[in-house]
Hints:
Elements: H1 2-52
Amino acid sequence: MSEQLENRVMDLEIRLTYQxxxxxxxxxxxxxxxxxxxxxxxxxxxxxxxxxxxxxxVRPNAEETPPPxx
Length: 70
């Protein structure tokens, strides 16, 4: 009986170690994704401010370089 209990405890310890490793990996992924979200939100805010301030994203035809086939 003691050997059986010891085997069960060892199995549980192995599973716990594996789960801790997986949780750490998932945490790293979540942190990385949050950093990416923060960067995207900052860029979106910057672009919205440019648009609100009247920044023109399209140049007038006079300033455009003609396509190479002309």
